[in-house]
Specification:
The chain has 524 residues and is mainly α. It is 69% helix and 0% strand.
Length: 524
């Protein structure tokens, strides 16, 4: 009798391109942390509030809400964990650095989740790598670990939620769907708008079920039965229950503390009132809210917003066009060459990444619009899910106000489809515009191409009409050239030459405060 050795399964080969992208992404994030002078301890913005409440929780074990509204808590808990660890290590000043390093790790995980999501969605390793490259290299993503905001944790949880949905779509395992619900619940405790995307997942499950049960014998599908619809209802209930299992304890806490039903936060009602009224009334309204008990502020703000809408139902839509145009801007160029000061941000030190980053954003946005105007190779249920999220993200920004970090979900989703479009550049003979196994008429293909051309033309028109970017970049480059010459002359003690250079910088951008400050130093 001879012994037979079972054939061993081949070991999975390392994904060297993905590993390289993760390493580069980590290196860029560490570099931006080292270059950043931002310190949340002295900030009056949201990051300062997050830091102070996290520190209070780490020291006392008691969680307190913001002084004038209730915010989502999960990122504050995350920050508090690392601040507590620093306290236990006997080095309180280490806390912020630990938070930043932990955020670098989450950034690396986000790159991997992006790769896995794009690869599974489009059945393309190349698309996964293109999307991972966008998440690893774009300045706005790489900058996130250096600041203490909620967006980095939120985007990681959203991509985890989406990847688990795609796994469920492929294998039908309810465990993946349940975990996807848990991830969405955690995302909602980081940014509350995620909670309302429960409707998008229910729509996704309905479309997926309809696609699977549509009578199409040649594809091996079966017609829908009462049992299959009951199974679908059970699937929906499972997802909703897992999402709410994460959110409801916080809702219960709010009810115990404030005796009001507050699912996550009071940001929506308060921001709606503040943004519906004129900007110069904002401080007055905030002072009004501060005089009220915390539990009554959301209802008061909502009543004020309803009164404004009753008097002027079109009020939310009047500034929408200007706000919409404001979305489509080259963000680093705006910060570096348009704003009056750098506001302590290391824009000059990081311009080598930021300026090419705007070109990267431009390429992925253009490609993303093309990808969204292709026939849905990934399935209509997935396409409509992404379109619903995009529409929801645009709507919330247009109703409230635009901040660059609020736009990150939009650029993430456009970058996902841009990765798919870019992955086909080197394979022009492959007809990515047609789903496999389906033949489209020539007229239908031409309609898809026309839609792509119209979207690209509309985006370029918005971008180029918003600012005269060639002139801005030329003036900004001249300003920076003269600023560098002035800094060199000032360091060498040649103050007349420094004064001349700083005056030339001001001639290029008269309102640039940094040049005014340098000129004042050179003249004293």
């Amino acid at each position: 009798m001879t012994n037979t050795i079972p054939a061993s399964s081949p070991r999975p080969r390392p994904n060297w391109p993905l590993l390289l992208l993760v390493l580069v992404g980590v290196a860029l994030r560490l570099w931006l942390i080292a270059a950043s002078p931002l310190d949340p301890r002295f900030s009056t913005a949201d990051d300062g509030d997050y830091y102070r409440r996290a520190l209070h929780f780490a020291v006392t074990g008691q969680y307190v809400d913001d002084s004038w509204l209730i915010r989502p808590p999960l990122h504050v808990f995350f920050f508090a964990f690392w601040l507590k660890l620093a306290l236990l290590l006997g080095n309180p000043t280490l806390g912020v650095r630990l938070i930043q390093l932990a955020q670098v790790a989450i950034g690396a995980l986000t790159i991997v989740l992006g790769y896995a999501s794009a690869r599974r969605l489009f059945a393309s390793r190349a698309a996964g790598l293109w999307f991972a490259a966008f998440l690893a290299l774009w300045y706005s993503f790489a900058e996130q670990p250096s600041v203490l905001f909620s967006e980095l944790l939120y985007l990681a949880l959203f991509l985890l939620h989406f990847w688990l949905l795609l796994r469920f779509d492929a294998n039908g395992r309810r465990r993946d769907l349940a975990l996807s619900g848990v991830a969405l619940g955690a995302a909602a405790l980081t940014r509350s708008p995620a909670l309302y995307s429960l409707a998008f997942v229910v729509l996704w499950l309905l479309l997926r079920h309809a696609r699977a049960t549509h009578p199409e014998p040649q594809a091996g599908r079966t017609s829908a039965t009462a049992g299959s619809w009951l199974a679908l209802l059970g699937t929906i209930a499972l997802f909703v229950a897992c999402t709410l299992a994460v959110v409801l304890p916080w809702t219960a806490r709010n009810y115990v503390v404030y005796h009001k039903l507050i699912p996550v936060d009071t940001l929506g009602q308060i921001n709606l009132w503040l943004d519906l009224d004129s900007v110069d009334m904002r401080d007055k309204h905030i002072n009004e809210l501060r005089k009220l008990p915390q539990a009554e502020r959301a209802g008061y703000a909502l009543a004020k917003a309803r009164a404004i809408l009753a008097a002027d139902p079109l009020r939310p839509f009047r500034p929408m066009w200007d706000t919409f145009r404001h979305i489509w801007k080259a963000q680093f160029v705006e910060d570096y060459f348009v704003k009056r000061s750098f506001f302590t941000r290391p824009l000059r030190a990081t311009a080598a990444l930021g300026l090419p980053g705007d070109l990267l954003w431009l390429a992925y946005t253009l490609a993303g619009l093309v990808g969204l105007a292709r026939p849905p190779r990934e399935g209509w249920h997935n396409r409509l899910f992404i379109l619903a999220w995009l529409g929801y993200s645009f709507f919330t920004v247009l109703i409230f106000h635009v901040e660059p970090r609020y736009l990150l979900p939009i650029w993430t989703l456009l970058g996902l489809y841009g990765a798919w479009a870019l992955s086909g550049i080197r394979r022009p003979s492959r007809k990515l515009a047609q789903p496999p196994g389906k033949k489209r008429g020539a007229w239908r293909s031409q309609l898809w191409i026309l839609a792509q051309a119209l979207l690209v033309a509309a985006f370029l028109a918005l971008l180029l009409s918003y600012r005269n970017y060639p002139a801005i970049v030329a003036a900004g480059a001249a300003r920076e050239w003269h600023m560098a010459a002035g800094d060199r002359a000032y360091a060498a003690g040649n103050y007349p030459a420094a004064e001349q250079a700083f005056r030339a910088a001001l001639a290029a951008q008269p309102e640039f405060i940094d040049a005014r400050a340098s000129l004042a130093l050179a003249c004293t």
